Amino acid sequence: MSKKKIEKYKDLGNRLYYIIRILNSTVRWKKVVHESIKNDDANIYAFWHQKIFFPTVNLHHVKKKTTLVSPSRDGEMLQSILNKFGYEVIRGSSRDNNVKSLVVMIKALKEGFSLGFACDGPLGPIFEVKPGIIYMAQKTGAKIIPVGGAFKWKFQFEKAWDKFQLPLPFTKGIFYLGEPIEIPKDGNVDDFLKVIDDAINNANKKAEELL
To answer: Rounded CA gap, 55 and 60, in Å?
Structure first.
């Protein structure tokens, strides 16, 4: 991709950031955080792609945070947005060169960064945890925090594979952080995939109930 195109998508990302900030300022947020979560720990915040808006705008209490963004043109746009929300962005793909991306994320966790991680990416299947998050937790000792969220009024992109949700102006929003999950180094990956899957779904269910 040419430098000119990169700058174009960065500029678009900057414009979208301010739109998101304005929209977010109208949301009436209620945040529920499990009492055992320590903001200074390097945690892995686990959520579905559908709910990316929630951790993007609500993890401002986490001082050192990072996330994985694809090297695509959309990634240029997304990086601009996330940088402004305080994220140190890792460029890479969990689909292509996934081992390299895992190594970089593990290094960031060991350096004290918390990681925001969409568990069903990059292209689904929707609502299905991939093994990478278990591997990272086992290698670093970082706890996995299930992230849930719900809007009273929202627009859902039904044609998108992830059914991405965006709040409508002046809606009520619930941001829910569940109990941290520790993955033993010798834990069975398949067993804990189900544990994390259930925990994220439960966090979203709790958020819906709180509405």
So the answer is: 9
The label of the residue with tokens 């993890």 reads: 59
pLDDT in tens, 21-49: 999 999 999 999 999 998 889 999 999 99
DSSP for 129-164 reads: --THHHHHHHHH-PPEEEEEEEESSEEE-TTSTT--
* pTM, to two decimals: 0.94
Instruction: Compute how many other C-beta atoms are within 10 angstroms of the C-beta atom of residue 53.
Output: 22
Query: Which segments of the chain does DSSP mark as H helices, in order?
Result: 3-25, 53-58, 73-84, 98-110, 132-140, 189-210
pLDDT in tens, 125-156: 999 999 999 999 999 999 999 999 999 999 99
Distance CA 106, CA 137 (A): 8
The residue among 41, 39, 45 whose CA lies nearest residue 68 is 45
Domain residue extents for the chain:
3-210
**Measuring CA to CA, how many Å separate 17 from each of 50, 83, 167?**
18, 10, 15
Which 3 state secondary structure label does DSSP give 51?
helix
| Beta strands at 44-47 and 114-118: parallel, antiparallel or unpaired | parallel
Contact 192, 134 (CB under 8 A): yes
DSSP state of 181: B
Local confidence band at 95 (pLDDT 50, 70, 90 cut-offs): low
Q: Give the chain's largest Cα–Cα span.
A: 48
